[in-house]
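User: I'm curious whether this sequence folds into something compact or stays loose and floppy. Could you predict its structure so I can see for myself?
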Amino acid sequence: MREYRIKLEENDGVAILIFAKLPRENFVKTRLASSILNSKEILQLYESFLLDTIDQANKSDAKKIVFSLTDTMAISTENIDDLSFFQTYGLVKNKKLFPIFHIQSEGIFGFRMKEAIIWGRSHGFKKIIVLGADSPQIQPSLLNNAILMLNQYDVVLGPSSESGIYLIGINQNLDLDGFETIFEGVELSNFAKFVVNQSLTFTLLSELGDIDQESDLVGLISWLESVELHLRLNPKENLDLKLSIPKNTLKTIKKLKLKIKVDDKNNRGKVIDKVK
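Assistant: Here's the prediction. I'll summarize afterward.
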C-alpha cells in the first residue's frame, strides 16, 4: 500500500473516500461493452462519472475527500503529478481535494476497501463515507444527510439495484474484523447482519442506481432528460429542489449523441442508441 505526498491539514474527522478505478480504456465499466458504445466512449463516460462524483462530494459538508485508487495502472514515480487524469482537470489545485491520495492494496474487493477504511481511521477520520464512481447523480444533500446520520447511527447504507450498496458510512464503533466477506453474496443484507451481529445500529438512505450495465444507463439518460426539461420549464424551482445536475455526464451523453431506443428484445424494451 502506497501513499502520495500525504500532508493532512486539520480536519473535523469527516472524510468522503472515493473508492474507484483510475480511468483506463478496457478497464472500467466493461459491462457496457455489450451496448452500442465502443471502449473509448465507455472510458469517456466513466471519466464523466468520476468527475461528477468528485464534484458532488466537493459540494458536500465533508472537509476532506480521499481518492482511494486501484494500483492496476502502473504509476512510474511517487509523484501526484503523474496521475494525469487529476492533473488534467485541475483537481490537484483544489485545497479541499489535494493532496490526499491512497493507493489500494492488492486482494479481493472487500479486503481492499477494508484496508482503505483502516487507512482513513489511522489518519484521524472518525466518520468515513465510502463512494464508488457508479452513481454520478448522487446529491450533495444526500451526502450531508449521511454525515449527520452518523451522529445517531453506527453505519449508514445506501442501497442500489440488485441488492448492492452505493454508499457506506461508518463511524469508529464498527469492528472491521471479517469486513472483507461482506461483498461475497447479497451485499446489503450481509452488511446489515454484520452490523447487527456487533450489537450496533444502522439506517438506510433512499435507493439510488449504480450505472454498471446498459439498462442502468437507460435509466440515467431518462432521468437526466426529465430533470433538464423540468428545470428548463421551471427555472426558479431548483432554488427549492437544490438539485445538483451531473454536468460532466450530461455533457458526455450529448457529445456522444446517446438516446434511448425502444427494442422489445432487450432491457424491457429499451436500449442505448445514437442520434443519426
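Summary: Residues 67 and 101 are 5 Å apart (CA to CA). DSSP finds eight helices and nine strands in the chain.
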